Amino acid sequence: MLDLPFSNESFDVVVEKGTMDVLFVNSGDPWNPRPATVNQVNAMLEGVHRVLKGDGIFISISFGQPHFRRPLFDAPQFTWTVEWSTFGDGFHYFFYILRKGTRTSNDQGSIEKTEMPSICLLQEELEGEDYIFRTSIDDDES
Fold first, then answer.
1. What mean pLDDT comes out for the span 24-50?
2. Is 120 inside a domain boundary?
3. What is the mean pLDDT of the chain?
4. What's 98's domain CATH number?
5. Is residue 5 included in any domain, yes or no?
6. How many CA atoms lie within 13 A of 30 on its CB side?
7. What's 6's DSSP letter?
8. Parallel, antiparallel, or unpaired for β 11-17 and 52-62?
9. Which of 79, 63, 57 is nearest to 23 (CA)?
10. pTM for the whole thing?
11. Which of 26, 41, 69, 97 has an alpha carbon 20 to 30 Å from 78's alpha carbon atom?
12. Bridge-partner residues for 15, per DSSP?
């Protein structure tokens, strides 16, 4: 996770669910996480960025809210755009889509919230073979 043993530009898509959340468990103040936490998260993101192909997509599913994640995703060494949406009722998960190859600007409105259809979190829905295909990560209108 912090030292991915893969060649550069090996993957079209990288998916993580909760990995970054684990790194934040003992981070202290969420507005100002401990330097050790920031270093670990940066190592993870740098590894993901490195193994993604030039137009690759990183999907991060997290409890971490955009105002806490954006400073890390928008670090100057990364060349990706950031979009996000929420799913779940009451207690939200955040679904981040980072597209490598273009840079999100650093202004306050740079992270874009995308509107996606509600995702049912009932067990029988999650176990369906087409669950991942019901999440929209591609720009194609097919």
1. 93
2. no
3. 82
4. 3.40.50.150
5. no
6. 11
7. S
8. parallel
9. 63
10. 0.73
11. 26
12. 59
Q: Which residues contact 128 (CB under 8 A, 6 or more apart)?
A: none
Say which amino acid occupies 142: S
18, 60 contact by CB (below 8 A)? no
Q: Is the pLDDT of residue 107 over 50?
A: no
Task: Tell me how far apart the alpha carbons of residues 108 and 139 are, in angstroms, rounded to a whole number.
Answer: 24
Cα separations (Å) of 79 from 9, 19, 60, 98, 140? 13, 21, 16, 9, 21
- As a whole number of angstroms, the distance between CA 110 and CA 97 comes to 13
User: Which distant-in-sequence residues (6+ apart) come within 8 Å of 133 by Cβ?
Assistant: none
Structural domain of residue 81, as residue ranges? 11-115
Q: At what angle do helices 35-51 and 66-73 cross, to 10 degrees?
A: 60
- DSSP-assigned beta bridge partners for residue 79: none
Reading the block at residue 81, the tokens are 């755009």
Where is pLDDT greater, at 19 or 138?
Answer: 19
Query: Does 3 reside within a domain?
Result: no
Q: What total number of domains does the chain contain?
A: 1
15: tokens are 């998916």
Nearest to residue 41, comparing CAs of 70, 14, 67, 12?
A: 70
Closest Cα to residue 20, out of 11, 12, 30? Answer: 30
The answer as to whether 124 is a domain residue is no
